[in-house]
């Protein structure tokens, strides 16, 4: 039966073999060894400490980002990885200003804790206008000219009922990204957006990227911490015509040169087949980018270290890419995919970690049903390590262009993202609390081992083109 299926696949040519594999006793011993190595001799936590404390936050174009590139290259070389190189890219260079002030003009004026959203233009000096609260982009359209000359306050909270907090984020983030465009189309002069977090009394505003649209006036956009969003809501509920002032001075500089940092172990049997693993090296310019995405960076590097420490020789090339500029442009991911296409490089799989350094639960798989079944076939082997989640879904922003760009050598590339427990991710996401101290050593190490185990299994069982 199995034989005939394989022959069938050969007959029809260019198909990948995602037939179910039976894992062996040797696999379970190897996976055990991988977890032992990560938990006993792990270096990811120390690497994360160094990235967070010696480099710090690192938004594209900044001195921090430049330092992070040097750090990434140096750390990979120190690990004894045979091939380490930089891939040049052009990145945007947006800078937060030194003025970020919002005041609600109640009889006792109240300072609102805000952060300028990434990409926002400056306010023309200090502006003052009435605040109008809305819960959706549609509501802005319904209000129409009633919001002309006003400041729009988007206050729809993240839905607490979802078990995956990423679903709640996805259900809300349109306000942050498109809020300014929608409001400007109706003549508003600025927007203030409730922070994307499930913390009900959050003290820090959470930044993140926002967009503009050609032909629509660019108006300033800021996020407000949830405690102040609630206070603002309570004032607006009882008093009409309430005004606020806003004063921010961010700056958009010309693009600058930067780099993806790449390290790889050449495959012993099929060096031309590449498994890419990665996270993004840049972070927002607040906190230390510890969970987002320092964790993904050190997860990925640690895969190479673990394989080397175990003296395991992969059949395919295992390539770590520390992507630059995921947060505000994804030029690292787009450029990597473009080069793969130009050079006809055969990426057979890609694994991304960009959901924090929390306890791993499984993988979100972007691929066909067969591919999802293929990965889920490893469940019994990996479940003892807490990895029970194998579902079709988004893999990651950095690797996504590999699949979008359908002309690369392998159009059916198997892609997946590590899925850690998500309950606390949005406590830290894009704010001052995303620091090294908020990452747990064991949880981080379990993530390293989980990706390494998956890479080992892909290397062994992902037979491409027969
Ligand atoms: Zn990220």
Total of helices: 15
- Low-pLDDT stretches are 1-16
What is the strand tally? 16
Bound molecules: zinc ion
Question: What percentage of the residues does DSSP assign to strands (E)?
Answer: 15-25%
The number of domains is 2
CATH class of the largest domain: Alpha Beta
Largest sheet: 8 strands, mixed
Mean pLDDT: 94
CATH topology of the largest domain: Aminopeptidase
Supply Rg: 24 Å
At CATH's second level, what is the architecture of the largest domain?
A: 3-Layer(aba) Sandwich
* Span of the ends, CA to CA: 16 Å
At the fourth level of CATH, the homologous superfamily of the largest domain is Zn peptidases
Tertiary shape: elongated
Give the % helix. 25-40%
Strands of the largest sheet, in order across it? 1-10-12-11-13-16-14-15
Decide which structural class fits the backbone: alpha/beta
Provide a descriptive summary of the structure in words.
There is one protein chain. By secondary structure, this protein is an alpha/beta fold. It has helices at residues 2-11, 25-41, 44-55, 63-78, 137-143, 165-170, 173-185, 226-238, 290-309, 331-342, 369-376, 379-382, 400-404, 425-428, 441-461, and strands spanning 83-95, 100-104, 110-112, 114-116, 127-134, 151-154, 190-194, 221-224, 243-248, 251-265, 270-280, 316-323, 346-352, 360-366, 389-392, 414-420. α3 packs across α9 and α9 crosses α15 (441-461). The structure holds zinc ion. Zinc ion (ZN) binds next to α9. Zinc ion binds at residues 280, 292-293, 326, 354.
């Amino acid at each position: 039966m199995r034989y005939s299926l394989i022959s069938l696949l050969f007959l029809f040519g260019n198909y990948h073999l995602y037939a179910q594999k039976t894992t062996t006793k040797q696999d379970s011993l190897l996976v055990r060894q991988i977890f032992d190595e990560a938990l006993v001799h792990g270096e990811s936590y120390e690497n994360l400490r160094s990235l967070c404390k010696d480099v710090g936050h690192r938004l594209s174009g900044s001195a921090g980002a430049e330092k992070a590139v040097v750090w990434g290259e140096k750390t990979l070389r120190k690990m004894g990885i045979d091939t380490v190189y930089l891939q040049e890219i052009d990145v945007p260079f947006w800078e937060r200003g030194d003025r970020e002030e919002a005041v609600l003009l109640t009889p006792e004026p109240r300072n609102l804790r805000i952060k300028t959203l990434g990409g926002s233009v400056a306010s023309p000096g200090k502006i003052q206008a009435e605040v109008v609260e809305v819960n959706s982009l549609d509501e802005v359209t319904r209000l129409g000219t009633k919001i002309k000359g006003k400041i729009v306050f988007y206050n729809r909270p993240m839905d607490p009922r979802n078990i995956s907090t990423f679903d709640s984020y996805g259900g809300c983030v349109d306000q942050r990204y498109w809020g300014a465009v929608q409001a400007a189309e109706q003549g508003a002069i600025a927007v203030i957006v409730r922070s994307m977090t499930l913390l009900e009394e959050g003290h820090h505003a959470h930044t993140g990227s926002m967009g503009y649209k050609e032909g629509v006036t660019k108006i300033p956009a800021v996020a407000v911490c949830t405690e102040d969003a609630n206070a603002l809501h309570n004032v607006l509920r009882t008093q009409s015509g309430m005004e606020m002032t806003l004063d921010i001075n961010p700056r958009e500089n010309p693009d600058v040169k930067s780099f993806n940092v790449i390290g790889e172990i050449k495959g012993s049997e099929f060096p031309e087949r590449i498994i890419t693993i990665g996270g993004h090296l840049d972070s927002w310019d607040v906190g230390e980018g510890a969970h987002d995405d320092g964790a993904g960076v050190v997860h990925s590097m640690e895969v190479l270290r673990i394989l080397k420490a175990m003296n395991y020789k992969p059949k395919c090339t295992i390539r770590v890419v520390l992507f630059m500029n995921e947060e505000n442009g994804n030029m690292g991911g787009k450029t990597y995919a473009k080069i793969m296409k130009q050079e006809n490089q055969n990426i057979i799989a890609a694994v991304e970690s960009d959901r924090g350094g929390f306890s791993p639960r499984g993988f979100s798989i972007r691929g066909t049903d067969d591919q999802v079944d293929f990965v889920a076939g490893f469940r019994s082997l990996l479940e003892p390590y807490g990895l029970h989640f194998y579902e079709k879904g988004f893999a990651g922003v950095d690797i996504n262009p590999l699949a979008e760009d359908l002309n690369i050598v392998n159009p059916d590339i198997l892609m997946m993202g590590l899925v850690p427990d998500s309950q606390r991710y949005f406590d830290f996401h894009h704010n001052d609390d995303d620091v090294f101290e908020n990452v747990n050593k064991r949880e981080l190490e379990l993530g390293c081992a989980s990706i390494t185990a998956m890479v080992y299994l892909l290397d062994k069982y992902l037979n491409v083109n027969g």
